[in-house]
Amino acid sequence: MRNQFGYSVGGPIWKNKTFFFFNQEFQRFPTAQTQNAVVPTAQFLTGKFTWHGFGQDTTDPNNPRTIPVSVNVDLTPGSAQNQFFAGDVFGSGASPDLDPIMAKVFALYPAAQTLSGDGMSGLVFFPDSSNTRSYQATAKIDHRFTEQEVLNITLRVRPVQRPEPVL
Question: Fewer CB atoms < 10 Å away: N or C end of the chain?
């Protein structure tokens, strides 16, 4: 739905010498649109997922080429990869269990509706509103000194407000 409205007013200030005119127009254009956000996959949130990416095949040093790579990752409590990170890499105080604060953060993520292909992220889609607002104003004053000497002053203002959603 688009709303467009305005008004105009004008007339003499000094008979046959000075005139004024003022006009203002407004537009309101509310719309709904679909936004998206990148979220982790359900498998990533559990700590056990397969990462898909690209690596370099260097078997022929004169002809390196990019090849697809998949790596199984298991960071669940008790797994060998989790024990590696909990060992001397981060110090003896590191816990192999999922941090309770991160567990609460992970619980806030919505489920990915479309997977990105890297095994770790996907997209979630949601409706959002956009409310474009604009107006323009014109003010004009004309003064006639003589038949040959006329002063015209015009001021035009046209700001546009187009809020963009932030996720």
Answer: N
